[in-house]
């Protein structure tokens, strides 16, 4: 009689573990990129998502605006003045599939791209221009970053 209860208990625990591995809940601001046997299947969410355990995997993607600090960069202006500049980058994911599939680490890639774009754009201007036209330079950097990150499903909204 005791062996029967143990068998039921083992089956119940196995069913609970199977259900726990199969059910995911995504918040309103999240999407799940689902892969079936390593191949992209769909973007799902928000709400209750049911996966086939061990066959399907899901990567969560946050669609909210990300605020990322760009580390200080040493820039040499067109008139050969060394300037240390930093920036803050505001972006969000607009296409979860491309953000996961097209680039390995979209956060690091966006940060690195922001650093190189910052040096490139500011290096074309003289120090007086940098100080006088900060808003224009910010808009130029934002447009370049937005254009380059579009292939990754990322929208840069402000720099």
Q: Can you tell me about this structure?
A:
This protein is an alpha+beta fold and 159 residues long. It folds into two domains: 2-62, no CATH class; 66-158, Band 7 domain (Tetrahydropterin Synthase, Chain A), CATH 3.30.479. The chain contains five helices and eight strands, in the order H-E-E-E-E-E-E-E-H-H-H-H-E. The protein has helices at 2-22, 96-101, 106-122, 127-132, 134-149, and strands at residues 23-26, 30-36, 39-44, 47-50, 56-62, 66-76, 82-93, 154-158. The strands form three sheets. Strands 3-2-5 form a three-stranded antiparallel sheet. Strand 6 and strand 7 form a beta hairpin. Helix 3 (106-122) packs across helix 5. It is rod-shaped, with a radius of gyration of 24 Å. The mean pLDDT is 91.
Tell me the CATH topology of the largest domain.
Answer: Tetrahydropterin Synthase, Chain A
- Helix/strand structural class: alpha+beta
**CATH evolutionary superfamily of the largest domain:** Band 7 domain
Strand order of the largest sheet: 3-2-5
Q: H/E element string?
A: HEEEEEEEHHHHE
Looking at the overall shape, the CATH architecture of the largest domain is: 2-Layer Sandwich
